[in-house]
Amino acid sequence: MPVEFLTAAQKAQYGHFAGPPSTTQLAKYFHLDDSDLKRISSLSKDHTRLGFAVQLGTARFLGTFLDDMVEVPDPVVTHMADQLQIDASAWSAYGERSQRRHRQKICRWYGFADFHKSQKPFFLLRYLYARTWLTAEKHLVLFDYATAWLVQNKVLLPGVTVLERLVAQVVDRADKRLWQQLNGLVNETQAEQLRALLAIGEGKRFSPLELLRRSEQHASTRTVNAAMRRLVSVRTFGLGSLDLSGFPAGRIQAMARYGLTSWAAAIDDLGQAHQLATLLVTVRELEARIQDEVLDLLVLIVADKFKDAAKAGLKARLQLLAE
Q1: CA nearest to 166, candidates 122, 106, 232, 103
Q2: pLDDT band at 224, cuts 50/70/90?
Q3: Is 90 exceeded by the pLDDT of residue 106?
Q4: Is the pLDDT of residue 285 over 60?
Q5: DSSP letters along 219-283, please?
Q6: pLDDT given for residue 205 in this prediction
Q7: Distance in angstroms (rounded) separating the CA atoms of residues 315 and 305
Q8: How far apart are CA 288 and CA 191, in angstroms?
Q9: How far apart are CA 282 and CA 255, in angstroms?
Q10: What are 155's strand-pairing partners?
Q11: What is the dihedral of CA 210, 212, 217, 222, to 10 degrees?
C-alpha cells in the first residue's frame, strides 16, 4: 500500500498559496458581501479589520489558516483593503494575538469545523470509498478530490500526512475487498493453474502468460491454428462462465489492462490476493480477445479467397472477350 504518494513539492503546496489568485478566484473566494462587511465593521481598528478579512478569504480559498501571514500574496491584501476602503499598509500592524482571536471568531461565525472534531469527514470517507470502488483513479486524483470536498464543506484541512494516509487507507480497503471477492470465484485447482502462468520453465525465455498474449499478425491456416490452440489453452481454465457483472467495470478493465501489458515478473511481485485477481481478469479478457482474433483471421482468409476468385473470374471473362 503506497502510504506516501505525494511529492515534496505537492506537500509543500498543500494548504498554501501557489501564487497570486486569479481575478476569478478573487471574486469568488475573497469577495465581502454586506453580511461580511457588517461583521468586520464591529472591529475597532483598520489593521484588525483588514487582517480579519484576509484570514476569512484565506480560509475560504485554501480551506485552512496560514501560520505565517507573510505568505499571503499582495493582491489578496490589496483586494481586501479596497473593499474595506482601508489603506493596505495597515496590514503590517496585524499581530499574532489578533490572528488567533480572529480564527476562533471566523470558525464560530462562518461554521468552519475542525477536521478531528467534526462528523463531516465521515461522509467524505464514504464518498471516497464509493469512488475508489467504482473507478481506478490514482491516489493523487482522490487526494485532490478530498481536499476540494473539505474546502467546499468548510472543514479545515488536517495535516498533509493525515489526509495522505486517509486516502491510502481507503484505497487499500477497496482494493482488498475487490481482490478477495474475485479470488472467491475460483477454486484451488484454478488458482494453481492461474499462478502457473507466471512460471518460466527451464530453458524457456517467456512465461505461459506472455505466450498466450502474443497475437498473430498475418492471416493464414497456420496462424488460425495457432490462435485456436491459444484459445483452447485459455478455455481450459474454465473462467468463461464466471459472472463479473456485479463488479465495477472500470476496475476490472484496469486490472485486465495491467495483466495484458505488464511483464510476468511484475505480476509475480504482486501480493497473492492481488496477483490471483489480476490473473483471473486477464485470462477472462484473453479468452474474449483470442476469440475475436480467430474470427478476424478467418474473415481475412475468406476475403482473400473471394478476392482471388474474383480476379480469376475477371481474367477468364477477359480471355473469352479476347477470343
Answers
A1: 122
A2: confident
A3: yes
A4: yes
A5: -SHHHHHHHHHHHHHHHTT--TT---TTS-HHHHHHHHHHHHHS-HHHHHTS-HHHHHHHHHHHH
A6: 84
A7: 15
A8: 20
A9: 7
A10: 113
A11: 130
**Integer Cα distance of 157 and 59 in angstroms:** 10
Query: Nine-digit cell at 264?
Result: 510476468
Amino acid at 160: V
What's the rounded Cα separation, in Å, for the pair 135 and 124?
Answer: 16
| Residue 99 to residue 66: CA distance in whole angstroms | 10
**pLDDT over 70 for what percent of the chain?**
93
Tell me what pLDDT residue 195 has.
94
What whole-number distance in Å separates Cα of residue 315 and Cα of residue 284?
47
Please report which confidence band the pLDDT of residue 37 belongs to, taking 50, 70 and 90 as the band edges: very high
169: which residues sit within 8 A by CB, 6+ positions away?
Answer: 1
For residue 135, give the amino acid letter.
T
Helix pair angle (96-110, 46-62), 10° resolution? 60
Q: Distances from the Cα of 92 to the Cαs of 30, 45, 86, 87, in angstroms? A: 19, 13, 13, 11
Q: What is the pLDDT of residues 38-62, one digit of tens each?
A: 999 999 899 999 999 999 999 999 9
3-state secondary structure of 218: coil
Could you tell me the three cell numbers for 18? 501557489
How far is it, in rounded angstroms, from Cα 121 to Cα 125? 6
Q: What's the chain's average pLDDT?
A: 90
- Interval 253-281: pLDDT, tens: 999 999 999 988 999 999 999 999 999 99
Separation CA 260–CA 289 (nearest Å): 11
Query: Would you say 66 and 58 are in contact if contact means Cβ atoms under 8 Å apart?
Result: yes
pLDDT attached to residue 216: 78
Predicted TM-score (pTM) of this structure: 0.83
Q: Which three three-digit cell numbers place residue 189?
A: 485447482
Q: Residues 120, 114: contact at Cβ < 8 Å? A: no
Q: Which residue has the cell 500526512?
A: 161
Q: What is the DSSP string of 128-142?
A: HHHHHHH----HHHH
